[in-house]
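dumping this here before i forget
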Amino acid sequence: MSGTTPVVEQVRSADGTPIAFERSGAGPAVILVGGAFSDRNATRDLGAALAADFTVLGYDRRGRGHSGDTAPYEIGREIDDLAALIATAGGSAAVYGISSGAILAALATAQGLPVTGLVLFEPPFQVGSHVGIRKDITAQLIELIAAGDRDGAVAAFLTASVGLPAEAIAGMKTQPMWGALTAIAHTLVYDSIVTAGGRLPDRLAAITAPTLAVDSTGSPQWLRDGSRAAAEAIPGGRAISLDGGYHDVPPATLAPALREFLLG
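structure:
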């Protein structure tokens, strides 16, 4: 790793939106794409675990952290953000995405971005008997954000998309973390649009980059099955399970698997 503190930089996306990112380490480039409720802080520990072998770029997706935002939201704009990061990384890069960030990474790769290797951690696709287990609340989120009800948007997402019970959400509202969640509540609309109600998109078949789908042994079966379905939908895609918790695998376990897949 080059130094103890990642260097914070900025790149302009195609529509002029500034995208903030941290660069650390040395070696082939890998870009880390976060999911809902997360900015670049969420992937920093994984980046640190990879930095001995890779040049790691962790970034704030638009509307989060120190990145800008431009209305109206379109998935294509987020793909442009990733394209700008790949360009500043040297013109090609491996990409790791978690949850909705994994779907975004997959869609960008399917569109033809110069991705050298793709790692998807539990993209929240709903397949088989799990179809409909999480309903599409995009329209509801749009209405809540338009009305200025950020608390309601966060609560709706945690209930419908994450599956938390009302009592757990009530407890979260008393914690300091609630303010951080509501601060980026508008981006839940973006994540909901990206996930498209959990449908497995046909365009995954267009991905030609080597792809690895990862699931955690501690995650619910619908997430694990969705991850493996993504691997099956991508030509040559592979799937592995790693020891971990709910929608999470510790960097000390995850990083070696990424290193082996991306470097061989």
